[in-house]
Design brief:
Elements: E1 3-8, E2 11-12, E3 21-25, E4 34-38, H1 44-53, E5 58-60, H2 66-74, E6 78-80, H3 87-95, H4 109-114, H5 120-125, E7 126-129, E8 132-136, H6 165-178, H7 187-197, E9 202-207, H8 212-222, E10 227-232, H9 251-257, H10 262-271, E11 276-280, H11 286-293, E12 298-302, H12 319-327, E13 328-330, E14 336-338
Parallel strand pairs: 1-5, 5-6, 9-10, 9-11, 11-12
Antiparallel strand pairs: 1-2, 1-3, 3-4, 7-8, 13-14
Helix pairs in contact: 6-7, 10-11
């Protein structure tokens, strides 16, 4: 049996088509041969052609979408999914006949069986099936979760979080908006309907200066239904000290150099007694500060992504940006740099 391992930077690639190398492993061959093939931005068709030419029986991968998996399986190639580890670990696991779905993300059943029964604290941190711990809690890596089919969650033995009247009312309103027969509402409309369901009167709008125009449009819509208090991220912000030779800044340069002040935004909105806060384009971290400091519940309407036209989910479907995210590492100055460029 021949295994194919798409890898990126020495690890199993997040998706097969983001790999820069394909390893072919023959555990039953003399000398346990491992062959390495370079990949250059392969499509699924390219990858399938390689797998067929080299007579691969099993594709080892991390994440894979259903249509790609179906196409690969239709070619007579099995898949082992949710494998997250270094390529050397995966190869060793193949040679020792212990590679299975979830390898690197959860314990194997054999290892779990050798461990003593989990105590209450362990069960609170792990998936438990039939009394055996099979891995740390990580719903995102498991396909076919029983809860998707209406069955009990593997965490069913955990104590239920205490539900308050406030959380029940908010969840009821959220479900009234989300569980429609047809998905006919955009995110902005959903926010409006939710706030109407909750009978809010005063809404806070905390926005980033970079998204001032979208914030202005959103505010004009919200003002048809609610009192709106809008606060820019630069409110009461201190200016950075200009670098040497840059004392004569233009007005726009001075505005850009003014530091963001999410605590100031929260202070203004709290002082205005806003009942609900809507975030528009705040930077990562600044949004967390404001949300934590806010006395009212908050939601995000628009997010900021300077590369993907404010559509960050696009990175998940882009081979280029997935590779970039995998290669990004902090440099000595604290900024990002792409390794291997």
């Amino acid at each position: 049996m021949r295994f194919a391992l798409p890898t990126l930077n020495g690890r199993i690639a997040p998706r097969p088509t983001t790999a820069d190398k394909l390893l072919l492993v023959d555990p039953e061959s003399v000398g346990r041969r491992v062959e390495s093939l370079p990949l250059d931005d392969p499509s699924l068709t390219d990858l399938l052609a390689l797998l067929n030419v080299h007579k691969a029986d099993v594709l080892v991968c991390c994440g894979i979408d259903r249509s790609s998996k179906r196409e690969i399986n239709n070619c007579g190639i099995e898949t082992i999914e949710n494998v997250a580890c270094a390529e050397e670990e995966a190869i060793e696991a193949i040679f020792e006949n212990r590679l299975q779905s979830g390898y690197g993300l959860c314990e194997t059943k054999e290892n779990a069986a050798a461990q003593p029964p989990p105590d209450a604290e362990q069960r609170a941190r792990a998936f438990v099936r039939g009394g055996a711990v099979i891995g740390d809690r990580d719903c995102a890596v498991f396909n076919g979760r029983p809860c998707n089919g209406g069955l009990n969650c593997p965490f069913g033995d955990l104590p239920r979080a205490e539900e308050t009247r406030w959380s029940r009312t908010m969840l009821d309103a959220a479900q009234d908006v989300a569980l429609q027969g047809e998905p006919s509402l955009c995110r902005l409309s959903e926010v409006v309907y939710f706030c109407l369901e909750m009978k809010y009167r005063k809404i806070g709008l905390a926005f980033c200066a970079d998204l001032e125009e979208p914030a202005r449009v959103a505010a004009s819509v919200l003002k048809r239904f609610f009192d709106v208090v809008s606060v820019c991220c630069k409110v009461r912000g201190a200016s950075e000290t200009p670098a040497a030779g840059q004392d004569h800044q233009t007005a726009s340069e001075r505005e850009r150099s003014r530091l963001c002040n999410p605590l100031g935004q929260a202070q203004v909105l709290n002082g205005s007694e806003c009942e609900f806060i809507i975030l528009v384009g705040l930077c990562v971290g600044a949004d967390s500060i404001l949300t934590k400091a806010s006395q009212a519940p908050a939601t995000t309407l628009f997010v900021k992504d300077k590369v993907l036209a404010n559509n960050p989910i696009g990175a998940v479907y882009s081979k280029r940006y997935l590779k970039e995210a995998m290669r990004t590492a902090p440099n000595s100055s604290g900024g990002p740099e792409a390794n291997g460029r």
